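Contributing new records

If you add data, match the layout below exactly. Sequence lines come first and carry their own label; structure lines follow with theirs. Keep one chain per record. Anything else will be rejected by the validation script.
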Amino acid sequence: MTTGRRTATGVALVGALALTLLNAPAAQAQDTGIKVSDIVINKGKPIVVGTSKPVEPSISFTITLPSGYSTSDPFRYDAYPFIYRGVLKHATSTGDNFIGPGGYTCYEQSDKVAECEGSLYIDPHPSQEHVDSNGDATTWKTAVALRLFRANGSLLAEEYETRSLTVRLKRAAKVTVNASPEPVVKGKKITVTGKLTRADWATKKYGGYGGRSVSLQFRETGTSSFVTVKKVTTSSTGALKTTVTASKDGTWRWAYGGNDTTGATTSGGDHVDVR
């Protein structure tokens, strides 16, 4: 992003502050004239969220101001993208199914144009309720909040505009691996086990993910790349188990490619010495 003089740093739109801003008195009758363009969220990739740690996917966007407003006076305007589910009016008036920026910084490109960058803030903790149902693992819509203020700081105009951009939220997954025996005689069998789990946003725990195809991969000692040896389907509890013939020293791992609701994941590696 081209970096000019920094003009403003956006406030954190989380918790009680977000609801304060969302429920502020609005002058809906007048259009703001602000334009927000070039919105990019998480570099165009799906957003993967677990059960406990906040996630802050990147955002970038461009603000163009109307006549009578200047980027040199950042307290006279406010504009930012957010994602939402369901009905826009309900999301913006209640904060339900609404995810906004954790913060952003804007850089002046001219007296009318500023380029901004920052991040959304998604906290799976129950007190935040950003993702509190597994149904939240779906496609979210994008919109922008636009506000103009009078010189005395009172709100002059406010509006929300939808955008065609959509963002996919996914539940995080984990997979473990164990290969045994270690060491093993060449030509004997190696048993490789593991378990695939994924985040449950309702319980805030990880549960077994059954019926999924997972790749067993191997990297020979002295090489840099893993190759897929076979695919194995998880049991109803997410368990993985298969056998392979020991032929070379190397490292075994499981790799799951993800799907529309669940993120991809790869286990750590388990090295087996073949003698």
